[in-house]
Amino acid sequence: MANKKKIIVLAVGLVALAAAGYGVKSWQDARATKPSIAWGSVDAREVTLAFEGAGRIATLMKEE
User: Fold this and answer.
1) Deepest in the core among 9, 39, 44, 47, taking most CB within 10 A?
2) What are phi and psi of 11, to 5 degrees?
């Protein structure tokens, strides 16, 4: 009878330990850093530098 009681106490202890480990693991996963999301617009332009192109200027466009 005493052996059954020890086995039951040991089994309950192992289940409690496993549940605590699972709880800690899921808590840490929830706190893990997630990728940042930024909203807005980006103004990007493609620029060709003058010294990379050869030749004369054909037209000079005006930008306002």
Assistant:
1) 9
2) -65, -45
